Amino acid sequence: MSPPPTCPACGESARLDLLSETPVDVIWDALEAVLHRAYPPAVRVRNTPDRTLTLRRCGACDLRFFWPLRAGDAEFYASVVDDVGYTTEKWEFGWVRARSAAGSRALDVGCGHGVFLAGLLRRGDTVFGLEQSDEVAARTAARGIPMSMESIESFSRSNAGAFDFASAFHVLEHVTDPAGFVRDVARCVRPGGSVFLSMPNDERTFRPALEALDFPPHHVTRWTERSLRALADRLGLRVVEVGFEPLAHDTARYVLEKRLHAAVRASVPRVGQALGAAVGFLASRALFPSRRLYEAAEVARRFDLHGLAIVARVEVPR
């Protein structure tokens, strides 16, 4: 396979490192275990035509991306949309609400079931959503949220500068042309307005050894603050602020418990298995006794313990 021509974020072509190669069947088997469903061979082949998923890293901006870039089709996403958290309040929703004015004209691209827009409606904003899934769009419209299934590329041509701010929550990692996508979203925002982008943080504190949903056909890119800033610079936009979701109390406990368990097991081979389990359990409960204390002491912020999401406020030039 020939090397990819350019980085999807910054456009660099000279420094593209090969990080890993993963057999597609490994990912599909893991997806089926996570989502509790079976995918026919035709769906697997259509969404991942190559036998191996090749992950590359851009040395210029740190973006990780799979090559060739190929996003999942409508049938695949219809099977996962209700299983991966699109119907619940997200941490970054509050982050964005705190940085946008009530009474704004707001656009949410990839609005899903409209949870974020419903919150804006309650505070008096004028809202509009874009969503590509037929089934999800029908449910969202039935809740009284103004929306369309039009593509952002088409929508931006007839709605240039129409909104005070626009948002796209956990969309960028799914698209094969992130630069074009963000350019179209920004076109919908008035000069001086903001685009809010959130996605999984590839530098989060904890992740499983094999996270099937962070591979194609679900995710095709992996982002860090550095790669996000590089994308904005390429488009002539300015990152005003970046936020990191704090690591949740339960996850912090789990990470500490497992790391202490492994450390004790490695240092005391004969009794390390049982001793490590006991040490990990007791220490994690002693250090993180309750969620209330963990959050009140701002442990995640003080020790840079990052959860799933990174979110950025990007300013559209005046």
Nutshell version of this structure?
By secondary structure, this protein is α/β, with parallel strands linked by helices. 38% of the residues lie in helices and 22% in strands. α7 (152-158) packs parallel to α8 and α10 (249-267) runs antiparallel to α11 (272-287).
How does this structure look, described?
The protein is 38% helix and 22% strand. Among the domains are: 91-208 and 225-246 and 306-315, Rossmann fold (3-Layer(aba) Sandwich), CATH 3.40.50.150; 249-302, no CATH class. The mean pLDDT is 92. The strands form two sheets. It has a seven-stranded mixed sheet, sandwiched between helices. A four-stranded antiparallel sheet has the order 1-2-3-9. The radius of gyration is 21 Å and the shape is globular. Helix 6 (134-142) links the parallel strand 5 and strand 6 (147-148). 37% of the residues are buried. The N and C termini lie far apart (43 Å). It is of the alpha/beta class. The protein is built from 13 helices and eleven strands.
